[in-house]
Each structure stands twice: as C-alpha cells, then as structure tokens.
Specification:
globular
C-alpha cells in the first residue's frame, strides 16, 4: 500500500511545493487552493474542489454536510490549511473525509511553513 500511496500523493505534493515556492507562506488558504487547482490541472491531473459529502447517520442522509477542499484523481483527499500550528483535529477531520469519500489516501497540507515538506502530512485509511 505504501507504494500506491506514494504514487498517488507525490504529484500532488510536487504541485503544492511549486505553488509554495512561487507564493511563500502568509497568504489565505483560498489563494493556495485556487493556485494548487491550477497547478494540478497544468500537470494533467483531474481535480474536484469544494466537493460536497453526504453523511449517512442511521438512514438520515445529510447532504452537503461537509466539503472536501480537493479530490485528486478521485482517490486523494487533500485538506488545505494556512495556519500557525496543525492541530490534531485537522488530521482527524482529513481521515473522516477520506472515510466518507472512500478515498484510500489523504494529504493534509499546511502552507504556513517556511519549507513546504514540513507542512505535509500523508494519511492512509
């Protein structure tokens, strides 16, 4: 599974590094999201954004309960942040989105760091 995870996430991480290299830290999350979507598409990757998730609680369907920041190639959930500190709840949130979407891998990317590799957390279900 590790090889599959790396194969799926490396192109996304590379695109995020390019965005961070050009823009640096300190901007709003929405700016990074728009630029990352553009960069991923330039690289030929299929990207969905602000994708609504349905939450099914014992037969109660809650439409638009959550929105994914990005879903890349239908398999990688990408949750973006631009925060001073990544809180444990952000990882839990990303794992929940992955489970609800049925995505095997996820990335939590925090753009508010000096070196983007320090802001990337890979997650597996």
């Amino acid at each position: 599974m590790v090889l599959v995870e790396k194969e799926l996430t490396e192109p996304v991480v590379g695109a995020a590094i390019e965005v961070h290299r050009r823009l640096g830290p300190g901007l709003l999350e929405g700016i990074y999201r728009k630029c990352l979507i553009h960069e991923l598409r330039l690289r030929g990757l299929r990207v969905q954004y602000e994708l609504p998730l349905v939450l099914d609680y014992k037969g109660l369907k809650l439409k638009n309960a959550y929105r994914l920041d990005l879903l890349v190639e239908g398999k990688v959930v990408v949750e973006l942040k631009a925060v001073q500190r990544v809180e444990p709840v952000f990882k839990a949130q990303t794992l929940t989105y992955m489970r609800l979407q049925g995505a095997p891998v996820g990335l939590l990317i925090n753009f508010h760091v000096d070196v983007l590799r320090d802001g990337v957390t890979r997650l597996l279900l």
